[in-house]
Amino acid sequence: MSRLVLTTIDAKASALFVVLIAMMPTASAQLLNYADSGRPESPGLELLQDEPHDLIFFTQESGGGWVKTRLMELPNREMPNPVPKGTLKFSIVGIEQQEFIAKWKDIENIDFWEKRLERETAERIKDGDFVGAYPFLSVLIRDYPSRPGLRQLRTEFLWRDAGRRAKNREFGASLAMLEELRRYAPEYRTQVVLKAIGALTDQLMDQLVTAGNFELGQQLLARLEKEYRGQNLSSISKWNAEFLAMAEEKRDLALAALEKKNYREARKYSRESIFLKPDIEGGTELVRKVDQIYPLVNVGVLQTATVLDPTRLDNWAARRAGRLLYRVLFEMQGAGPEGGEYEFIFGDTEQSPDRQRFSMFLEPERLQPPLNQVDGFYLADVLADRVQPQSPNYFSPWAAAVQAIGLDGPKRIDCILRRPNVLPSALIQVTVDGEWFGGEPGSPTGDYRRDVVEGDVVRYVLKGKPRTELQPREIVEIRTESAADGVSKLLQGEVDVLDQLFPADAVRLSRNRDVRVVNYPLPSVHMLVPCSDHVYLADKTFRRALVYGTNREDILNGELLESLEVPGCRVLSGPFPAGLEDNDPLGYAYDQSIAPRNYEPRLAKLLMTMAQKQMESEASRKKEEVPELKPIRLAYPPENLSRIACEAIRSQWQLLGLEIELVELPVGRAFPDEGAADIAYVSAAVWEPIIDARRVLGPEGMAGSTDQLIGLGLRRLEESKNWRDARDRLLDLHAIAHHELPVLPLWQLVDSYAYSRDLLGVGSDIVSLYQNAEKWRLSQ
């Protein structure tokens, strides 16, 4: 650039321009937006970081050089031809406050911004640099969609990049690019593109089938048939034939197994056959025939049970599977306006108006074996045994409630209560086993018995005559690797039911027309329960620091709910459920006025320091060594929801300077053995706080709390004479637990289950998956 080429609009600007020209010989000046010689260096991809601009190049006769200008308004954004007489007015990038002029005869060329982008794109495509070409092409598509050469650039990019990806065996990505090319420019080498799509889909299908991803393969094949109808795509006919051959092989295996009366194998192969080819001849009829001969239901579970106890508070798997083998004296059927609704499995009950007499009426003539063998004298002894302090079956709330137990004939038992009791049936959730009827202790009283355990598969087999022709002869629990794996198995037909869904999976799966998703009516309460003699965890101030140092809202909404809104899921301030909505009777024990503690890491650090100073002071007073802050071992059940939550908690506690060790519990376990961990992540079924409060907080409960305030609150609760007293004292207990923190409350989750619509009789208001298992039937 030279003084002969450029002049400014006024004298003041001209003086400024002279100063700028004087600076040009320096190295740093070459980085500015003009120069009096040479050409600007190619910035590469950094060009896209610049504001859009044009480049004017001057003739050598005029002094040479170049300037970077704001986009100029020229007809068609082209260099005029022929070159006009007169001058061109423009602004230099970086000196927008001044305008400059140059004579047209001194201008050698103008490099327009969009042409530069096109040139950069074409050069990169030619060199095979598709990663570098893509951003330039994207800007052209966005800002200059009507450029005449853009269509050619875009089609060349898609075609050549698809070829590169295919050579790298990126078949999915290559296919996506070719299909985009076909949609964008259907006239571009039509037959060649279709042939390439056919070859790619063939390779992709082979890749999916070899990996066992039949579901994805079928989805791809169905889409190809829909979108390429009449196009003679070679891969469609080939893979239809392949799937038919695989389906016929499975069907033949099913028929052979059926002939040998190997009904498990027959069921497996018949379902695999129609999964591979839903319209295979005789496929649906074969499935129905096998189901009619030997009804069998596969249930996908996150944990198989090693303990079988339908009354367990803290073990989902034990509670679920226990219901198949055992009945409970009073079984919870759902929630009512005043606590749970319970069914007396041996007959009916009645409570006197003053709530001080609770009567049980036995009706064995209405019962199925072995329950019809109930003995009123034996049942009275069981109830009395729970009152004896020396008995291993002693239950203090029942002992505190009952004054006398009497028999009025063999079919009526009267329990005289010390004071009015609002829900005596909740105090008598006793597992009924075969010993009640003269059998072996622990033997099943439900419809099923546990058969074989084969790795992650547990079979429960009907142990007597079926109640109905279609009652499942087997219920098979299959442990899935994750909740997502369970969803995949349900959609593929490998399982008929999922007992527990990730909340986000439940939202997504509810949109599937072949599956029914139902919420359990009672939420689970998630908490951290100290379970060792770790000195710091025994300190209330330190436990409060852990709560303030845990971003529970973020973990719940971000990690567990995946930013989806799931009504009823919320952070808690205490160990009781808050209900699913405002004024929900399910939340009768939860004080809504007590807000959960916020995430305040600075306060958490301060409280940790305070706890340490208190220990130092106490140690000095007793002339003992200051306790060491040892690593905290955090235990969790072996399923991915608990794992994800605990990994997030560990990360947040590490930010406080704590050393955290994660301990995964064995399959089927929900609480660590003594000495195995310091604090445990527990998902508890606190469905009846009026009785479960002691099971969670009491000295013999999960928390093992010996706190005097907690103990007083529990005793006052058990002395309640009416529902108003019970609710008021539960609210008091909530406040005490919020302050003393015998457990660290996290959140409540609305749990759900899902099942194929081919399975009938599951029910929609059940508190346990197998509540109606004897009524299940596969549609015919």
UniProtKB/TrEMBL annotation:
Sequence ranges assigned to domain Solute-binding protein family in this UniProt record: 482-666
Query: What domain of life does the UniProt record list for this protein's source?
Result: Bacteria
Kindly give the InterPro entries that the UniProt entry links to this protein.
Answer: SBP_5 (IPR039424), SBP_5_dom (IPR000914)
Which Pfam family, an example, fits this chain?
A: SBP_bac_5
The identity of this protein, by name, is: ABC transporter substrate-binding protein
Instruction: Provide the species name.
Output: Rhodopirellula halodulae
